[in-house]
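Hi R.,

As promised on Friday, here is the backbone we talked about, encoded as structure tokens. Could you run it through your design pipeline when you get a chance and send me back a sequence?
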């Protein structure tokens, strides 16, 4: 499928390749690297069900490493919308970008984050979805976890930023978010290795050293199958667990 898309792109078509995120991009990462990205083919990859959404199907269908796998491929951009409004903007962005793009979809339908459609996305820009007190944390979240970040922010008066574009990510926006808050917290339904938290920490270590708490999936597989909400709880990504982690970190 990826090879066919590369050929169609070479003929001037704009193919979209769809599959579960555990398979597109993870299972076909070599084809994405060599058939598409290497020759700068204009293909959009849609990875559905990223994170724990396909919970009952087990580890083979749970995708918590797809951002890590795709980040290092030269020229491949990564998108991660948090709601239907960001999804529309990300699809338009991907189509008009004229290069290879991976669009990560969580499919958990946590509800709207934005109250209205979003204007054209600019490459790498963060979107502020809530203003909080400068003495409180700034939460930068992506995908399904933006809704959770908003729910938590009401308790701790934190500023919340959504990151619909993970690669490239605007360093100036990240530094601004850090400079206007007591510390930075990243939340993602993805491994803490190589995902949003790593990207933010890398940027801040170079440009504006700051304290960063990375909340995501630790270095482990799921112990059991179960519902989506169960797996969020098992991995400490449910609302009470995330709130507790942030409160403990802020007090350090």
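Update: got your reply. Pasting your designed sequence below so it's all in one thread:
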């Amino acid at each position: 499928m990826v090879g066919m898309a590369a050929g169609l792109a070479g003929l001037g078509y704009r193919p979209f390749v769809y599959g579960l995120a555990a398979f597109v991009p993870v299972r076909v990462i070599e084809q994405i690297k060599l058939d598409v990205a290497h020759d700068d083919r204009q293909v959009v990859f849609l990875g559905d069900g990223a994170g724990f959404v396909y919970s009952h199907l087990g580890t083979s269908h749970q995708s918590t490493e797809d951002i890590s796998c795709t980040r290092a491929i030269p020229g491949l951009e990564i998108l991660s919308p948090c709601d239907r409004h960001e999804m529309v903007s990300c699809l338009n962005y991907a189509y008009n970008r004229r290069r290879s793009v991976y669009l990560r979809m969580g499919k958990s339908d946590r509800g709207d984050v934005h109250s209205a459609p979003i204007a054209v996305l600019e490459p790498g820009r963060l979107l502020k979805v809530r203003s909080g007190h400068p003495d409180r944390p700034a939460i930068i979240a992506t995908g399904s976890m933006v809704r959770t970040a908003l729910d938590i922010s009401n308790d701790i008066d934190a500023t919340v930023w959504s990151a619909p574009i993970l690669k490239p990510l605007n360093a100036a926006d990240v530094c601004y978010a850090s400079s206007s808050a007591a510390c930075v917290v990243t939340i993602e339904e993805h491994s803490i290795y190589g995902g949003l938290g790593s990207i933010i920490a890398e940027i801040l270590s170079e440009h504006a050293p700051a304290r960063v708490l990375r909340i995501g999936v630790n270095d482990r597989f799921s112990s059991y199958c179960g519902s989506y909400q169960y797996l969020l709880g098992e991995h400490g990504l449910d609302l009470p667990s995330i709130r507790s982690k942030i409160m403990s970190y802020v007090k350090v």
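One thing I noticed while checking it: Strands lie at 16-20, 44-48, 77-79, 101-105, 127-130, 138-141, 159-162, 165-167, 184-191, 212-217.

Thanks again,
M.
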